[in-house]
Amino acid sequence: MRHRTVGDLMTRPVVQAPRDMPFKELVQLLTEHDVTAVPVVDGSARPVGVVSEGDLLRKSSGQADPSGLLPVPHLEAWERAKAQGAKAEELMSAPAVCARPEWTVVEAARVMSDGNIKRLPVVDETDQLLGIISRGDLLRVFLRHDDAILHEIEGDLLRRTLRLAPSAVTVDVREGEVTLDGSVEARSLVPVIVRLCRGVDGVVSVTEHIAYGTDDTGGSAAAA
User: Fold this and answer.
1) 221 within 8 A of 188, measured Cβ to Cβ
2) Distance between CA atoms of residues 19 and 10, nearest Å
3) Which bin fits 115, alpha (ψ -120 to 50), beta or left (φ > 0)?
4) Which of 6, 64, 78, 197 reaches 20 to 30 Å from 147, CA-CA?
5) Residues 186, 1, 134, CA angle at the centre, nearest 5°?
6) 98-133 burial, b for 16+ CB within 10 Å, e for fewer?
């Protein structure tokens, strides 16, 4: 099985900003390219941070309300510095958390989830900017057609990897939801099949109704 990588899903070329780009030019850059954030790069095209709409909005949210109805917000020192910033390097979130093109969707998703990050610049082994990957890009794997998922499970997984006969396990895929029916020789093989199916790109869920001939688990099946 071949899983699609960050390099397959990332957006390129990348809209980027130099460290000294002024605030208004940053706003114009985001607007013109209809993006919500851009990597900030040094003179060697290496990402040093990311500036987003949220970073730029601190310029407004950190100011006093002209009507006088809202209290002046309390800002931490770093928030105040960003609100007062005028250039990309003063406004950006840094350091840049980056991905590598060979990462799987799972690796990128975990980094985003753990860091509450919406996008990752993608760099090569010399830290040169190659592309950018967003949460939306990662979700594109779930747009994969059911027929493609079915073909991979039946051919690559069940036949070539597990060496099962075509009549052993039947597969049905609808909207990414996989249902497995049939029988196998050993009970321990059932959770292996389920786990491998869950790892196929585009699979939303797996339900199995697989019987077995021999219980080789000692009465307790391995966790799927």
Assistant:
1) yes
2) 23
3) alpha
4) 6
5) 125
6) bbbbebebeebbebbeeeebebbbbbeeebebbbbb
Instruction: Go through the chain and tell me how many residues it has.
Output: 224
Burial group, residue 76, by CB count within 10 angstroms (0-12, 13-18, 19+): exposed
* Burial bucket for residue 189 (CB in 10 Å: 0-12, 13-18, 19+): buried
Tens-place pLDDT, residues 101-125: 999 999 999 999 999 999 999 999 9
Task: Work out the pLDDT band at 28, boundaries 50, 70, 90.
Answer: very high
103 Cα distance to chain centroid: 10
**Which residue do the tokens 């760099």 mark?**
123
Tokens of 147: 């027929």
* pTM of the shown model: 0.74
Residue ranges, comma separated, of all CATH 3.30.1340.30 domains in the chain are 144-214
Among 19-28, 44-53, 167-176, 215-224, which stretch is predicted with the lowest mean pLDDT? 215-224
Retrieve residue 127's tokens. Answer: 């830290």
Please state, in angstroms and rounded to a whole number, the distance separating the CA atoms of residues 54 and 149.
38
CATH 3.10.580.10 segments of the chain: 6-140
Fold of 144-214: Histidine-containing Protein; Chain: A; (3.30.1340)
- The stretches of the chain forming alpha helices (DSSP H) are 6-9, 23-33, 53-61, 77-84, 88-91, 105-115, 135-139, 146-151, 189-198
* CA-wise closest residue to 163 among 193, 142, 188: 193
